[in-house]
Design the sequence.
């Protein structure tokens, strides 16, 4: 099954698209995606492949996750999300544990953003969330992004506490991928309750990196946005 999946992916490879994606996802030496290899396959095509192999065993999903090829890792996560959605409580716990045991392979921002809300975030909606605060303090860029992006699942339930707590932990993070993710999640909080977002901003906006602040206030009316940027 795994061999056929890989064959199906390679049939869709587009070398020109692969070059574009390699630049977009910063795969050069010293960049955040260093060493990542692209086949050049569009995400809808990868979703179609994932739907073709919904019962791929975790042992084979793990092999895909350990591939140097970006699309193989993304398809692995898409299959995990499919399986998680169909699983009972024990199955969801097994997939959640598997996910956390493989965070080192969820190592680009699209992989994190696709999977974290739908697996770790969803699983922790009604559970202890201390693991996310641990991940937020990780030296791993990707674990820190998993921490904040997992809270998107809570935001969708109008539960903002974890997002705000993790945003405080990551308030002065130096990496722009964290700054953008935190700003994005604060903006999502504001879509649902702008008063809560503004209470957080009024307390912290002067310490925020400009990138984080810009993302957080993107939907504010022009005058208010300019005022925050002028004072920040």
Sequence:
């Amino acid at each position: 099954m795994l061999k056929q999946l890989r064959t199906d992916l390679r049939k869709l490879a587009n070398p020109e698209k692969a070059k574009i994606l390699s630049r977009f996802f910063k795969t050069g030496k010293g960049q955040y995606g260093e060493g990542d290899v692209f086949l050049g396959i569009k995400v809808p095509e990868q979703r179609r492949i994932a739907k073709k192999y919904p019962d791929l065993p975790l042992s084979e999903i793990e092999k895909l996750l350990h591939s140097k090829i970006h699309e193989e890792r993304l398809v692995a996560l898409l299959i995990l999300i499919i399986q998680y959605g169909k699983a009972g409580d024990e199955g969801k716990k097994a997939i959640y544990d598997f996910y956390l045991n493989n965070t080192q392979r969820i190592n680009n921002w699209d992989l994190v953003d696709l999977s974290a809300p739908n697996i770790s975030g969803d699983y922790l909606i009604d559970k202890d969330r201390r693991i996310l605060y641990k991940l937020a303090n990780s030296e791993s860029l990707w674990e820190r992004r998993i921490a904040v992006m997992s809270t998107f699942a809570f935001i969708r339930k109008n539960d903002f506490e974890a997002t705000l707590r993790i945003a405080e932990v990551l308030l002065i993070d130096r990496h722009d991928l964290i700054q953008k993710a935190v700003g994005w999640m604060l903006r999502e909080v504001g879509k649902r309750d702008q008063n809560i977002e503004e209470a957080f901003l009024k307390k912290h906006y002067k310490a925020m990196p400009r990138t984080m602040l810009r993302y957080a206030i993107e939907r504010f009316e022009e005058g208010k946005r300019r005022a925050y940027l002028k004072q920040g």
Observations:
- Residues 131 and 187 are 23 Å apart (CA to CA).
